[in-house]
Amino acid sequence: MGVSTVTAGRIYKGQRRGASGEEAVLDFEKFPFTALSKTYSVDKQTPDSAATGTAYLCGVKTNNGVLGVTAKVKRGDCAAASRRENQVESLLAWAQAHGKWTGLVTTDSVTGASAAATYAHSADRTYTSSVPNGCHAKDIAEQLIHGDTGSRLKVIFGGGLSEFLPEKTRPKEQRMIEGDGLPINARGNRKDGRNLIEEYLQRHTEEDTRAAFVWTRDHLEQLEDPRYSADFLLGLFAPQRLSFALDNLYGSNDSLSSEEPSLAEMTLAAIKALSKAPRGFVLFIEAGNIDQAHHDNLAAHALEEVYQLDKAVRISTKLLSPKNTLFLVTADHSHPFTVNGYAARGKNVLGKTEKNGHNILSYASGPGGSAPARKMNRNLYPSMVNLTTGVHSAEDVPVFAVGPWAHLFTGSVEQSYLPHALSYAACIGPYSHRCAKNDLPQKTSVNVNYIKDRMERPTEKPFFTEVPVPHRVNILAPNQIEFTKVQTTAPVTTVRPTAKSSFGTTFPDSAVTHSQRYVQVPHTRPKESRKNPVNDAGDAHEPHRVASQERSTAKDFRKQISQRRKKGKNVVAASEIDAEIMPSSFINIKPESRMDDGPIEEVQDARPAANTQKQRKVVRLYVPRNGKFSNGFEKRAGMMTNYQIQTSEERPS
């Protein structure tokens, strides 16, 4: 699903709804953050689905044709693929290790390259139901049922039934479930005589968990009935991949296709099942028939599959809130598919530019080149190079993101970057330390608008240069969420070094004194006031000297501020300030500032500032009820009168 497929799919969606089409918007195009992903593999300029699946699910680029292993494994090298040091874990495995539920939904076979990258380690993507002689590794279907990651998938929906069944049907006395017409007793492709569906059900029975196997659309609806509830769901709805959605809509020779669920229906059932997860979930959804339709030069079928993917995204975003769920839509690779010519606005994107013109949609390669005079043959679209099947292209593919930490998905990135950013946002896998259990969180309930502003305009630097202060977000109510700031485990004495006689501001939490930080204003400092050091004894016997010193300090400070106004305002980066967020309901004083500032309370701290013997002023900021701060501090705060807080977007390089 490259950029051209997204463009054509957008027009197709609009025209499918009776509009001109060009002005339509796919639901995932509404996501606020976009990027481009570079798809090349280690050994090829143009990748296949196995290499790209390993990249965007495991975070490692590898060779074409291999799954879940590093580039040290050449295609077909079973011995190298079996070595643990050459295997890589997927995003779903990282999620499982941290107690999250996981699921897999695809219109392709569940043993297909993209889906298999979530759970399998294989020297060849074609080892779906068997391996060559001399190869002692498990085939991909067996890894799904008995593998470390595959066996813990809560939901598995897709095609590929034949990969789990033996070539010969079993005698009735050896069947787990009686019934000649049941798919579980049908013939398959396995040469070892094993029925992996029976083994799947038996495995979970022994583990004292309930498992269900479904194979029709009606079964998905029955899963909502408490009588059929299960801990693990396996749905295989076709012998290989599912039928094209266009064939299901307008008729097909395959009578079984009417019993197949759509991608949106499988997505709905999967989310309902996974929404019970106590610690959240990770769900992988693949519109695999987009790829197959492009391979066959079936442009209309490919665009209908894009439309079905858009429906699945729309259902997902309605069921799950982007306030606490990160959504990512991308592709494994692109195809040499083109939208060309000067067709008039509103022209049928599946037709020609004009009455005797050329086709708007065409391919650079594929079976469409064999048609006479390169004209459309039913649903077959023309191609320039005649091949038995269409090939992939090396162009970058788009990435669309919305939700917490979606701002990490911008610019041009390596495809292997995607799972690392996802795991960073979810605090799993290599970045689980961001939400370490040993850290003591300080929780408070704040307005959703504040969190949204915090997510869209973060003050922290990107994670690949400096790990920011970790945060956690949990939904409490439609308009309230729980914002958790994890306190670092550094010693209490760890403070920023201070220059002598400098002015600063601390933002302490009254309940947690060790979280105080002394923050200095960078760049220029107020001129040092006349020193008049006094010891503890002098404080008691010479109070007039202390009062005189305070007046002198305040006078010099106001003088310095006045001089700085003429030169321009000094800018303080927001990252220099560590504020402990507290709800405004925590205090009893009346708000003296504007409503968008929140109340500001000035107090005296009896303890001397670091490296000085002067009293320092403490300014406590409280989160207002509408969740917004002003751009700067009020004058009455007594500190930093002439400074502005600078966000990350405005920070000078």
Features:
653 residues; Alkaline Phosphatase, subunit A; 3 domains; five-stranded parallel β-sheet; four-stranded mixed β-sheet; 16 helices; 21 strands; 17% strand; globular
Write the layout of secondary structure elements.
Elements: H1 3-16, E1 33-38, H2 49-58, H3 78-82, H4 91-97, E2 101-109, H5 113-116, H6 140-146, E3 155-159, H7 196-206, E4 211-214, H8 217-222, E5 232-236, H9 245-250, H10 263-274, E6 281-286, H11 289-295, H12 299-319, E7 327-330, E8 337-339, E9 361-366, E10 383-386, E11 397-402, E12 411-414, H13 417-426, E13 441-447, H14 448-456, E14 471-477, E15 480-486, E16 504-505, E17 519-520, H15 536-541, H16 543-567, E18 570-573, E19 600-608, E20 615-621, E21 643-646
Parallel strand pairs: 1-12, 2-3, 2-6, 3-5, 4-5, 9-10, 18-21
Antiparallel strand pairs: 1-11, 7-11, 8-9, 13-15, 14-15, 16-17, 19-20
Helix pairs in contact: 1-12, 2-13, 6-7, 10-12, 11-12
